[in-house]
Amino acid sequence: MFLEQGIKEENKFSKYLMGTVFIIMASFFGQLPMLIALLYETTFKGKVYPSSDQELMHFFDPNLTLFFLLISFVFVLFGIYFVVRFLHQQSLLSIITSRPKLDWSRVWFSFGIWSVFTIVSTLLFWFFSPSDFVLNFKLIPFLFLVIIGTLLIPVQTTVEELVFRGYLMQGFANLSKNRWLPLIMTSGIFGLMHIGNPEVAKLGYVIMVYYIGTGLLLGIITLMDEGMELTLGFHAANNLIGALLVTTDWSAFQTNSIFKDVSETTVGVDIIIPIVVVYPLLLVIFDKKYGWTNWKEKLTGKIV
């Protein structure tokens, strides 16, 4: 069983706190390439150092900014491997799935179904509200975006899943010896990690409902499926296809996408519908395909 793979007497919760600090340090090291580039541009080319996140997002070419944002996750990936392998004496696979090896068919199924949903929903928004979008497509920058996004966005989303649905979920399971606390804690922390995103400043804290709800969805999927292959596919599709299709001047990812959303964005039903309609429907699809059973026990039961 997935959570049980990390349940060891020597896996005290203090170890997970130490590991989390190490992973955060790896993230800081991963930000050095952008810092070095910033210092070079401001010192030798006379550019003004950005005084806000908004200015930072527009300081470099969008593709270069995206590269700098994503390359830090490569450092974090190595940090996670080091912590899991040497601090906890576990394999990386043990915080990914309970299956003998990674089930790529699950990853691709989840990636495919969420890619289709993202593309169709975006095209419907564009069809019914064409004035909210402008064509942003430029072939060469878009091709570079495809290359950078395809190589690094899955790294970013995989790292986030390894941290929240893998490492921390097993950590809170060691602490509580039940399933509901890891689910609640990782969902809440996942949401709070997005509190610094430009979307929150633009739309207000109510959008945290979406982030926490998404964390809850991914946690439920992981516990019900005894592994995070489905969440790996979902998260990669959500970020990659979204980055390729639409950008805004205020989103966390500034990309050379096909469309730019120029609407006066406000929080409305588009935030609530995924939580109360789309996500439950996705759970039903996964349930039917993979034959999930014993929901109450898997989501709230004790760990023996």
Automatic annotation (TrEMBL):
Transmembrane domains' residue ranges: 16-40, 66-87, 107-128, 140-159, 180-197, 203-224, 236-253, 265-286
Any GO BP: CAAX-box protein maturation
Ranges where the CAAX prenyl protease 2/Lysostaphin resistance protein A-like domain occurs: 144-241
A Pfam family recorded for this sequence: Rce1-like
Any one GO molecular function term: metallopeptidase activity
Keywords: Hydrolase, Membrane, Metalloprotease, Protease, Transmembrane, Transmembrane helix
Keyword Cell division: no
The keyword Hydrolase belongs to this UniProt entry's keyword annotation: yes
Name of the molecule in the record: CPBP family intramembrane metalloprotease domain-containing protein
Phylogenetic classification of the source organism: Bacteria, Pseudomonadati, Bacteroidota, Flavobacteriia, Flavobacteriales
